[in-house]
């Protein structure tokens, strides 16, 4: 049976590009690993943040567009994005969030404590300490919480299509686990919620890992045989991908680990300049004039 290693990336919708860079790079300490455009709407940035190399399981991406309406987190969406931090680094992160006047709550699920807070657009984020290396830095995704319109159908997809193993149920949540060391935990919320509305402050899709393009083709055939309707394989420059809606209404993507973010700029300069796919290079000047000027900068209060 095909089994995904876990989360490849998560993509969300926000309003302001610079504000998003300030929060995810300067406050949370993620690296801006790619500054490109939404291939389907090139007038909108596509910003990628992750670890130093943008490894699968560490990358959160954004479509920042000022004109989009505010969304509402609910059924048919990713509800919570959880990041993994090293053991014993809760005090550091409490202090850091307080330094930037970011309120937080401590939540508990499956015997773990989660520090939950909200990003500037309303996305729900969590930090959870896991057995990972490093001092305090975010190591990648710990996992995610899905808010499904039909939790049993979403559970079926995770187990029977993607190869996750169900490892627990408690207080309105099902928990699933994959084989990876990061991005390996998925919780499904069982309690009813409001209907999700797409817009700023919501997750557009969650992507799962495929080892290469050959495996991606196998996923496509598997989904088709089981009555899903995946898209054709799309070239996203840094990975190949297919997309489909699972039975609970959430948009799933399956994306290849290679080739990664060094295909168009060296690792030491990731995210420094606007990268365009070859078919849009002739429109570079126009796009650069249209897109807002952004930069990674040090914020007041940053250590």
From TrEMBL:
It comes from the Bacteria. Residues 6-130, 140-257 form the VOC domain. The keyword Oxidoreductase applies. The keyword Oxidoreductase applies. It holds the Pfam family Glyoxalase. GO terms for molecular function: dioxygenase activity. CDD domains: PcpA_C_like. Keywords: Dioxygenase, Oxidoreductase. Gene3D superfamilies: 2,3-Dihydroxybiphenyl 1,2-Dioxygenase, domain 1. This is Ring-cleaving dioxygenase. It comes from Sutcliffiella cohnii.
């Amino acid at each position: 049976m095909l089994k995904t290693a876990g989360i490849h990336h998560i993509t969300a919708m926000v309003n302001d590009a610079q504000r998003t860079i300030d929060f995810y790079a300067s406050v949370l300490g993620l690296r801006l690993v790619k500054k490109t455009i939404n291939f389907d709407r090139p007038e909108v940035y596509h910003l990628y943040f992750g670890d130093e190399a943008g490894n699968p399981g560490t990358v959160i991406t954004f479509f920042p567009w000022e004109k989009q309406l505010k969304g509402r987190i609910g059924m048919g969406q990713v509800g919570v994005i959880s990041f993994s931090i090293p053991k014993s680094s809760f005090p550091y992160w409490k202090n850091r969030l307080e330094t930037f006047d970011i309120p937080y709550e401590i939540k508990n699920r499956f015997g773990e404590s989660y520090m939950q807070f909200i990003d500037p657009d309303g996305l729900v984020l969590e930090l959870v300490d896991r057995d990972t290396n490093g001092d305090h830095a975010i190591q990648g995704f710990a996992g995610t919480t899905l808010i499904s319109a039909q939790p049993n159908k979403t559970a079926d997809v995770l187990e029977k299509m993607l190869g996750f193993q169900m490892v627990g149920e408690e207080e309105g949540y099902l928990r699933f686990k994959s084989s990876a060391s990061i991005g390996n935990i998925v919780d499904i919320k069982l309690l009813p919620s409001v209907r999700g509305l797409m817009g700023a402050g919501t997750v557009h899709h969650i992507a799962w890992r495929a080892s290469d393009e050959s495996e991606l083709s196998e996923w496509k055939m598997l989904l088709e045989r089981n009555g899903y309707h995946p898209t054709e394989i799309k070239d996203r420059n840094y990975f190949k991908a297919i997309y489909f809606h699972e039975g609970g209404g959430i948009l799933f993507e399956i994306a290849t680990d290679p080739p990664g973010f060094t295909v168009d700029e060296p690792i030491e300069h990731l995210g420094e300049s606007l990268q365009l796919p070859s078919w849009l290079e002739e429109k570079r000047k126009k796009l650069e004039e249209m897109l807002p000027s952004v930069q990674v900068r040090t914020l007041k209060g940053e250590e």
